[in-house]
Here is the input.
Amino acid sequence: MTYPSLHMIIAGERISGGGRRTHAVVNPATGETIGELPLAEPADLDRALEAAQRGFRLWRKSTPQQRAAVLQGAARLLLERQEDLARIATLEQGKPLAEARMEVMMNVGLFQFYAGEVFRIYGRTLVRPEGMRSTVTHEPVGPVAAFAPWNFPLGNPGRKLGAPIAAGCSVILKAAEETPASALGVLQCLLDAGLPPDVAQAVFGVPDEVSRHLLGSPIIRKLSFTGSTVVGKHLAKLAAEDMKRTTMELGGHGPVLVFGDADLDRVLDTVVTQKYRNAGQVCVSPTRFIVEESVYGRFRDAFAERAKAIAVGNGLDDATRMGPMANPRRPEAMDRLIGDAVQRGARLHTGGERPKGAGIGNTGFFYAPSVLSDIPLDAAIMNEEPFGPVALINAYAGEEAMIAEANRLPYGLAAFAWTGDGKRQQRLAGEIEAGMVGINTNMIAGADAPFGGVRWSGHGAEDGPEGVLACMVTKAVHEG
Here is the structure.
């Protein structure tokens, strides 16, 4: 298939051309430009805001049956279009096709769950003396400005669109300029399933221009952002000027505690694959491996051997297990962070370079699966989210020291632990500071489960009932 033509969607109209500035969309496996994306001017953003205001007035009065029909219809269309959407995502983001197909299915499951959740937005009636009536209800918050990053070009837009639509809100989506066609494909499924055109818009542009314009408008009542902590703090300050509601899913630095009583083969079978999924460009990626001393050497060496065997190449090739990084900034960041760690005394077991070989050109943004050990805590990579295909493995003396390292950083998105001790599992569940904890599993996300972090990793949640309620306000009504 060929890469589709690019546009914005405002009030149901496809907007392109007209002398607008453009952004070159690049295939990260080849470095070639595959599309030119039109960028919004202020007049485009004003038009999107006006449409969102009209859309909210309409959609807030929609019935649960109407919202469910749209979400169920979009899920069916996603299934029908799975292969085309997956190939688009791989072309513009780089990940293997198998991973892109999983993203489509993630949206299918989420939309199906939300189609049921619209019937479960319950209020309550309070106990009052005779002659009085007090009720608590949930109402849609209003138009939502939603900002989605490039690492999950299908899944992130699905999250940003699904919850507001289920709650009865309108939404303006600004997905990443690196991966626009994927986001447009998800939105088009919703529109083709009967979503009124004014309810959801898709705009692209210079990020700071778009965010300031949308968040500066009183029409927008909520901000939903997934991205780095630095940008998240900036947007939260803009939103605070008008006291807008916020859901912030920010950076992480996923600790993985591996105890001596764990089944190491099972651990390695799980975490190595998970570490290099999407070339490590995952906010919940397992990153800091905090390994008990008794099994440290065995774990480290077996991890490095498995990392060396991962097939790197174009995501469209069936043999590929890890594609390129999404843009040229990421390999540069890997060079900087790994180089700094080695200079400070860390051991590099594999990787740390741009790979060469069949299926890997000189212009793609590839980076070899990398493993570091014995990394000093003052190395930048131990304190800054690497967001790339690098595992950091250090030895620790026991449970107390391991938990202290897991909680050392201000991030608290996802954490993992592997142990056969049932009582320890309970202690870890209570003492690890993270919004999501996986114990003897890497499965920490599901359509019915809240997804979000604490501390510098943000606040609020997406997915689950919490994702819908995050797009609603609570009202208490007292009648005498």
Summary: The mean pLDDT is 97.
